C-alpha cells in the first residue's frame, strides 16, 4: 500500500540536549532531520522501539520544544542508536517554532522545495501555520514512506460507508497508518470504510476507520486496495506484531 510521507524532512544535523519528561538530567544527541511530523534522532542513549516517549529537545542555536512521540524504528551502529520519532502530541506554537527554525536556517531550500522558483517577498519565518497546513496536505511535498510496512495476512472485515456493503478479506500488508488487501469487490479511491482486523492475541478485533487511497484491478477480476487510516494506530500495530 502507498502509505507515504507528505511533509518534507529537512536535514538539520544539529546537536541537541534531550530530556525525558519524568526523569532528571539530559543526554546528548544529534537531530539529523526534522519536520512538522517527526524527527530522526542519533544518540548513545537507548529508547524503546514501538513505544511512546515524552521528550524535551533543546537544539543548539535553535528552539527548545516538548512533544509526545512514537518510536517508529531503530537501527544500531555499534554503540550509536538511530531512531525515527513520529509526533503524537505537539502544539501549534511548537510547530511554529520548528518551522521558523527550519526556514531561518534553510531559507533557499525551503523556497525551492515548497514554492518552486518563485520569489518570496516575506522575510524568513514570516509564513504562519495556515501556509504550513496547506503543504501538509501534500502540495509540492516529498512523497516518502514514514511508517514501516509489514507483510501480514490477517482476517479483515470492512464496511463501505457509501453503499453499506460488507466484505471479508485478508490483509496483505499493514502499518500504523494503512492497510493493504485484495477484494472481490471493487472499491474506488476516496471510498470511506470501517474496518475490523482479527488479531492473533484473541482479544477484541482491531477497529479503524479509513479511506481508500488507491485501488487497481488485478487478475481474476479482483481489486488490490490501499487504505489510509484516519489516525495512526500505533498501539494496535504493536498488538499485531506481538
Structural description of this entry:
The protein is an alpha+beta fold and 242 residues long. The protein folds into two domains: 10-136, Thrombin, subunit H (Beta Barrel), CATH 2.40.10; 155-241, Thrombin, subunit H (Beta Barrel). The protein is 16% helix and 43% strand. It has four helices and twelve strands, in the order ββββββαααββββββα. Helix 1 (92-105) crosses helix 2 (107-115). The protein is elongated and about 55 Å long. Mean pLDDT is 77; it is low at 1-6 and 115-144.
Summed up:
It contains 4 helices and 12 strands.
The number of E-state strands comes to 12
Low-confidence stretches: 1-6, 115-144
Average pLDDT, to the nearest integer? 77
Q: What count of domains describes the coordinates?
A: 2
Task: Estimate the helix proportion, in percent.
Answer: 10-25%
CATH architecture of the largest domain: Beta Barrel
Distance between the ends:
22 Å
Shape estimate: elongated
CATH topology of the largest domain: Thrombin, subunit H
What does the main sheet amount to? 6 strands, antiparallel, barrel
Strand content: 35-45%
Q: Quick one: CATH class of the largest domain?
A: Mainly Beta
Major sheet: arrangement of strands? 1-2-3-6-5-4
Secondary-structure-based class equals alpha+beta
The CATH superfamily of the largest domain turns out to be predicted glycosyltransferase like domains
Series of secondary-structure elements, N-terminal to C-terminal: EEEEEEHHHEEEEEEH
Number of helices: 4
Main attributes?
Thrombin, subunit H, six-stranded antiparallel β-barrel, six-stranded antiparallel beta barrel, disordered N terminus, single chain
Amino acid at each position: 500500500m502507498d502509505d507515504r510521507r507528505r511533509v518534507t524532512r529537512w536535514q538539520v544535523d544539529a546537536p541537541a540536549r534531550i530530556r525525558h519528561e519524568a526523569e532528571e538530567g539530559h543526554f546528548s544527541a544529534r537531530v539529523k532531520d526534522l519536520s512538522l511530523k517527526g524527527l530522526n534522532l542519533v544518540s548513545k542513549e537507548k529508547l524503546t522501539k514501538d513505544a511512546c516517549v515524552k521528550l524535551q529537545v533543546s537544539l543548539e542555536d535553535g528552539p527548545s520544544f516538548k512533544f509526545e512521540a512514537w518510536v517508529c524504528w531503530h537501527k544500531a551502529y555499534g554503540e550509536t542508536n538511530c531512531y525515527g520519532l513520529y509526533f503524537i502530541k505537539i502544539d501549534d506554537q511548537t510547530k511554529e517554532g520548528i518551522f521558523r527554525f527550519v526556514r531561518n536556517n534553510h531559507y533557499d531550500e525551503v523556497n525551492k522545495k515548497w514554492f518552486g522558483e518563485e520569489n518570496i517577498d516575506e522575510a524568513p519565518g514570516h509564513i504562519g501555520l495556515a501556509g504550513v497546513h496547506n503543504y501538509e496536505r501534500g502540495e509540492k511535498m516529498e512523497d516518502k514512506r514514514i511508517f514501516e510496512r509489514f507483510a501480514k495476512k490477517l482476517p479483515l472485515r470492512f464496511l463501505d460507508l457509501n453503499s453499506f456493503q460488507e466484505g471479508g478479506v485478508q490483509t496483505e500488508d499493514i502499518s500504523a497508518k494503512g492497510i493493504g488487501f485484495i477484494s472481490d469487490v471493487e472499491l474506488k479511491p476516496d471510498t470511506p470504510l470501517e474496518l475490523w482486523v482479527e488479531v492473533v492475541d484473541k482479544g477484541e478485533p482491531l477497529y479503524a476507520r479509513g479511506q481508500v487511497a488507491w485501488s487497481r484491478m488485478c487478475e481474476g477480476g479482483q481489486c488490490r486496495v490501499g487504505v489510509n487510516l484516519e489516525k495512526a494506530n500505533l498501539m494496535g500495530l504493536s498488538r499485531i506484531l506481538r
